[in-house]
Amino acid sequence: MNVTKTIFGEIDNRRVESYTITNNHGMTVKFINYGCIITDIMVPDREGKLENVVLGYDTIEEYLNERAYFGAIIGRVAGRITGAQFELDGETYTLEQNENSNHLHGGFHGFNRVIWDAAIIEEQDTKGVEFTYVSQDGEGGYPGTLKMSVKYLLNNENEFTIHITGLSDKKTILNCTNHSYFNLSGDIKRDILDHTLTLKCEKFLPINEQLLPTGDLADVAGTPFDFQNGQKIREGTRTEYPQNLLAGKGYDHPFVLDANQDQEILLEDQESGRMLIVETNQPGVVIYTSNQLQGDFKIRGVQAQPYLGICLETQGLPDAIHHPHFPTIVLEKEKQYNAITKYRFGVI
């Protein structure tokens, strides 16, 4: 196994670096220190052919101009916050309104928009990189000076792990995720409509017209949201079920995980033979089927269009600060935030 570093580009006279980890089986993960963006994950299909299974770009200029959050670490808080404000211990904090009147994915200058410091990790059975960033008190409107760490680690079992920690000098809120768009066909040969998704989830969170959770917990049984026994993504795009229509004919919904670190998320592509198992210590996962991915731009030569990728955003439940019955995203002073997600690639 090895880790290499190259120059990816430059932002305001600051160098953006690209890191590549390759294991003994040829699996490769590439990422940059701008936004901790994962640009490539190369894994074999059933014939052993290595191809990229995430959406991304080849230049820093493309990442600076895009709004899809391809491959980035999202924070301080993933998802939307109603009215771009919240209350903590009687004090109201006002955040940046970057989606209508709401706050989305950490605001205009969230974790996805900063250059992180980086250090290579070389252990006996694992290679990786640790990214660090200090988010100052008041940044984006959030309280507390927050010391963040993101570790990207790869081993020879074709397991890629993301380990995110945070430590604040004030009580604050924190809920991070990675926003990679997966497409197991390889090099975006097809869309993800015939990918099969299996989730250990009996409940999902309905959303309103602003794509915010209503606060309800709904049963998946009898709906297009029942992935307990596996279902193709296509099913949610051709139904008249109101929640699918609200999301733009697909999914942009949080699911409540019934299990943790127990093969709770499975994505499969029968044609390529690739499969991805996702395990996490987080309470939920937001499934987004790139329903809004469109515009006059290309993704490595492929015209932008809906359903080119699926996001499996493991995290706390969105807008939890406004729903006391959701698991809390409040981070106490000097108490460590700890989020771990493992992606294990294989073949069917």
Helical amount among residues, as a percent range?
Answer: under 10%
Radius of gyration, whole Å: 19 Å
**Level-1 CATH class name:** Mainly Beta
- Tell me the CATH topology: Beta-galactosidase, Chain A, domain 5
Major sheet strand order? 11-12-13-14-30-24-23-18-21
Distance between the termini: 25 Å
User: What structural category do the secondary elements indicate?
Assistant: mainly beta
The residue ranges in which pLDDT falls below 50 over 5 or more consecutive positions are none
Number of separate structural domains? 1
Residue-averaged pLDDT, rounded? 98
Continuous helix count: 2
**What sort of overall outline do the alpha carbons produce when their principal axes are compared?**
globular
Strand content: 35-45%
EC number: 5.1.3.3
Keywords: Carbohydrate metabolism, Isomerase
Catalytic activity: alpha-D-glucose = beta-D-glucose
Protein name: Aldose 1-epimerase
